[in-house]
Amino acid sequence: MKENYCLRAALVCLGVLCHSQAFAAERRSHLRPSFHGHHEKGKEGQVLQRSKRGWVWNQFFVIEEYTGPDPVLVGRLHSDIDSGDGNIKYILSGEGAGTIFVIDDKSGNIHATKTLDREERAQYTLMAQAVDRDTNRPLEPPSEFIVKVQDINDNPPEFLHETYHANVPERSNVGTSVIQVTASDADDPTYGNSAKLVYSILEGQPYFSVEAQTGIIRTALPNMDREAKEEYHVVIQAKDMGGHMGGLSGTTKVTITLTDVNDNPPKFPQSVYQMSVSEAAVPGEEVGRVKAKDPDIGENGLVTYNIVDGDGMELFEITTDYETQEGVVKLKKPVDFETKRAYSLKVEAANVHIDPKFISNGPFKDTVTVKIAVEDADEPPMFLAPSYIHEVQENAAAGTVVGRVHAKDPDAANSPIRYSIDRHTDLDRFFTINPEDGFIKTTKPLDREETAWLNISVFAAEIHNRHQEAKVPVAIRVLDVNDNAPKFAAPYEGFICESDQTKPLSNQPIVTISADDKDDTANGPRFIFSLPPEIIHNPNFTVRDNRDNTAGVYARRGGFSRQKQDLYLLPIVISDGGIPPMSSTNTLTIKVCGCDVNGALLSCNAEAYILNAGLSTGALIAILACIVILLVIVVLFVTLRRQKKEPLIVFEEEDVRENIITYDDEGGGEEDTEAFDIATLQNPDGINGFIPRKDIKPEYQYMPRPGLRPAPNSVDVDDFINTRIQEADNDPTAPPYDSIQIYGYEGRGSVAGSLSSLESATTDSDLDYDYLQNWGPRFKKLADLYGSKDTFDDDS
Asked: At the fourth CATH level, which superfamily is domain 487-603?
């Protein structure tokens, strides 16, 4: 049995840097070959001991970033069967074999031909094998090993961001956390201190500090004031190798902004403000502005203003302009220079939002004195009253005094006043005014019933300055005078039933009447109703006053007859309660009407009464019967006219049978006079004595589908046939009684000849249809029918 050999790897000491011997010694210590054996029996039963390779390849190491002139020796592969005669060839395969790692196929030395970077790739997996140089036959199984790239400190720390921005409230306590900065190192954190980082602050002392291990930035000074300095620039350094000398470092900038807190109260820049206002100013007009300064910003700097004291609190007010943070002093009520010429106010400015942490810095408010001087102005005249109400009786003569308006100049000059009426308010010119004393008079009599109130406006202007004027409303009430007599409230009309003398009189009034008066209630009701003195003893009717502004009209007798008199006119006198009283005579119409036994009105027309007496009930019935007979005759006549317009084809419902007539007549030209008759299609039951079968009656009556109706005479034949076919196909109760008629006659003497192709297959033709063979399987049948004889023979 051929003996099996194992490869052995030996690492060559690398003379790279000052600690290369230690690397080589370490790598040798990893190669610990271990052998395991098992026993086999020989041919003679002898037990033979066989060596079996059982060791595992350890890792090879090569330092990164080597820049020497020669390739780096990574290690050496050697086989026990290699006697040094060059018959064994070493082969290397795997990651980077042939490009990064090369092997001397005779000696087994492995070199790295390129500079390696652990941050790009930390290890490579390779496969080594010894083969026969001549036959390339493997002398032992391939062995796998790993080459690890040994890290060096070649990467400086890098922060996640080039710059950081952070905020911290002003006046924060020492040690308040601001922000945490983090850096990373691409070197191997498991080997040495190449990736061990330490943070330090380069700029920003003594205001801030940084924790060396975590990178947390904290405040280092108390009571940092935003109003003194708002922004700080801090530089933080991260250094590897634990911060020791020789380590690499990286820096980042941190911008720290102090945020505002309400730690400053508002302050007025001066103790007294001087303002002035004209006495002509109107309420709401701005007088002046005050402003308290607060160095805080945002809501911490919001200030509100109030008037807390002063003799002008009732005349002035102050509001806050939040855009400019100013207090706006406005006029609340009009001021008068002649009454008071100066006012004093005490204005307070206070913060809206107060931070309890800094309440000891308070109070967060300030006060200031505002002095306001009233300026004299040429004021318009002032009426002694804001409005006037006067009264005048209606129908008063022109020139009657209605009343007076009075105005005066409030200025010290006391200019004379001139009055006038605004004619836009007195278009009918009912009034005039004295321009000097303001007395208002009428120009014509007034009617209260037309207008009870009149509203005008009066101007008062200074004689020396017409632009200074005032206006006052004047309401004039027209007092009522009893100048209208009462009248009927409505056009009343009474009805009385005709009766005989023996019938007792009714206690019910014929009609109840009331009155209406245009005058005021003082000159109107109570109304008194009576008959005129000359007919106070009227034999037919009487009037009874109900003492509630109504009255009832009653009949004094019975036996009224329309034939004697059908209409009565009754005069009634109505008086009002005015002083002096007014009265009017109104005429009431009373008609005599026919009534039934219950007293219900039937007719109040005398002609209708006579017509009813001359026309009997039988005559009326005869007239109505004649009218009905005439209507029946008209209806029958219209019905018969419609029946005559029914279609010619009419079948009984139980005898409906469909006949499909098919024809292939193409027409015979000009002399074709024996073609089918259209009547055959329209009445198929009459052709050749055909009679539809009636021996079988359908079990269910077929109802034609909606939309299918017999075709009229002028319908197209094709539509008629299709309609009948569709009805027959959809009728489940109709037996198959369809008949087929064939029209094969083409006619004689046609110049164009026949277009039929029925006999084309049996006649000789000069046409060549062999090209149909090339048209594919869809035209195979035509090719068989119209192809040449040779083609038929070939097919057979």
From this structure: Cadherins (2.60.40.60)
Indicate the CATH number for domain 272-375.
2.60.40.60
Model confidence pLDDT, tens digit, residues 71-130: 878 788 777 777 778 888 888 888 888 888 888 878 888 888 887 877 788 788 888 888
CATH for the stretch 382-479: 2.60.40.60
Each residue of 318-375: pLDDT tens digit?
A: 999 999 999 999 999 999 888 899 999 999 999 998 888 888 777 889 999 999 999 9
- Which of 49-53, 384-388, 559-563, 722-726 holds the top average pLDDT? 384-388
Distance CA 350, CA 368 (A): 12
User: Across residues 561-587, what is the average pLDDT?
Assistant: 88
Q: Is 725 helix (H, G, I), strand (E, B) or coil?
A: helix
Residues of the chain within CATH 2.60.40.60 domain(s) are: 59-150, 158-259, 272-375, 382-479, 487-603
Quick one: tokens of 794?
Answer: 């070939």
Percent of the chain residues topping a pLDDT of 70: 75
Amino acid at 629: I
Token pair belonging to 421 = 């009426």
The half-sphere exposure of 177 on its side-chain side, counting CA atoms within 13 A, is 7
158-259: CATH number: 2.60.40.60
Q: Which amino acid type is present at position 544?
A: R
Query: Of 577, 582, 587, which is closest to residue 543 (Cα–Cα)?
Result: 587
CATH of the domain spanning 59-150, picked from 2.60.40.60, 2.60.40.10, 3.40.50.1970, 1.10.260.40:
2.60.40.60
Strand partners, 407: 383
- Residue 2's CB is within 10 A of a number of other CB atoms, namely 4
Q: Are 118 and 188 in contact (CB under 8 A)?
A: yes
